[in-house]
Amino acid sequence: MDNFVALIPLVLFLAVALGISFVARRRSVGEGGFVKEYFIGNRTLGGFVLAMTTIATYGSVSSFVGGPGQAWLVGWGWVYMAVVQVTALVLLYGIMGKKLALVARKLDAVTVIDVVRARYSSNALANISAVIVVLFFAATMVAQFVGGAKLFEAVTGYSYMVGLVLFGAAVILFTTIGGFRGVAFTDALCGIIMLVGIGVLAAGILTAGGGYGNIMETIKANHPAMLEPFSGGGMPATLYFTQWLLVGVFTFVLPQSMVRCMGFKDTKALHGAMIIGTVIIGLMMIGVTALGVLSAGVLTGSLADYGSSVDNIIPRAIAQTLPSWAAGVAIIGPIAASISTVSSLLIASSSAIIKDVYLHSCEARGVQPSERGISRGSQAVTLCVGAIVFALAVVPPDVIWKINMFAFGGLETAFFWVMVCGLFWKRAGKLGALLSMVGGTAAYCACMALGFKVMGLHQIVIGITVAGVLMVVGSLIEKRPQAEQQRIDQVFFPE
């Protein structure tokens, strides 16, 4: 009976999310047509929804399960590392957002890859971008499915497959049906639920541990190094530096975040999103990571006692510190994080395949697909990508936060210099962009596969450095026709 009680809040949440998608789908497409409506919501998002959909996309199940689990193991040092995440929306909307939005409106661009194609006049670069997006998004989505299903299993007592089928089917359906607008509004709901889940779990941990003071005394007695900034060597300065880059500074070039800059209604909405989002993401990311540390005052065994995986810590904390109904509410937070991330990546993957590859190919051949055909094709692709990711998640990999960080690093390496130089450096050219994206991403993946590091720094440093050097060298040796430079100046660098 307790298992069923814990299940009720989650089922109700999924039903509401699905209902929102149906409502969004019934709204008029308007002047923009299906493509603009389905992939960027016809550029009509207000500040609050824009902030919440970005936060919900950024805050994955790794943020709610893997990260806090690692904090349980390492201590407050992991929380101090998480602080840098408050910069994410400032950099995204304060630096990238306005410029990208202005350019996108000039070009009538619907995707980030539309902007890349126009800036560098390269179909090859656009197609490579689409492949990279889909592959790294798929890895991230697998991690979200696995994390959500494992959490469901640990808290409710139902099997991993039941959890996977339940919310996997729900998220695929409401993304397929609702498109970008549906995803944005369900993301806003997910963001609110994440905050509620954090509050409920915090209350449970503090109560079970006898209050904050008692928890700190327990941690001090058992693991005093957890209270130190460097966690007795568990958080070296090199880890701080590279994690700040990986989950903070470089995140503003993630395609799933940048596309939100193309969907806001006006400048007021953009500024509102930056302010609201920064406050909420700070509370959310710092708060949930701190709960991982506090749970060490309640879950006092060794890692082996909890299945030898940090991914089991937060699920165990929920199950151990909360009654069934409250556990059912708390579980919605991380599952909402999983759902919101998957839905955003699904819609972005679909846009990469349909808009950036298929429709561009049709345009090049002088073929004009019908609106109905595009609609059905887009929804079919969304459904297929979701089904493939679901199938990959049936046999779950371990340590989901590492999978998520790998995908983050790959996308950041591929797009950082291509987007930053493309928008802010006139001399950036096609050859430099191609070399940067391909060479940087290849270097990053090779170093990750081999475990190769320089001075103990995460492989993102190697990837970004190689990509940057190749961008500069390639751009400087390339000779651009005067007419092409004038076109770029007119659209991207107007006086």
Can you offer a commentary on this structure?
There is one protein chain. The protein is 77% helix and 0% strand. The mean pLDDT is 81. The protein is built from 21 helices and no strands. It has one domain: Sodium/glucose cotransporter, CATH 1.20.1730.10. The protein is globular and about 70 Å long. Helix 1 packs parallel to helix 15 (324-330) and helix 8 (123-156) runs antiparallel to helix 18. It is mainly alpha-helical. The termini are far apart. The protein has helices spanning 2-26, 33-40, 47-58, 61-74, 76-82, 88-107, 112-120, 123-156, 160-208, 212-222, 237-247, 255-258, 267-294, 313-321, 324-330, 332-364, 371-393, 400-424, 430-450, 459-477, 482-492.
Short description, anyone?
This protein is mostly helical and 495 residues long. It has helices spanning 2-26, 33-40, 47-58, 61-74, 76-82, 88-107, 112-120, 123-156, 160-208, 212-222, 237-247, 255-258, 267-294, 313-321, 324-330, 332-364, 371-393, 400-424, 430-450, 459-477, 482-492.
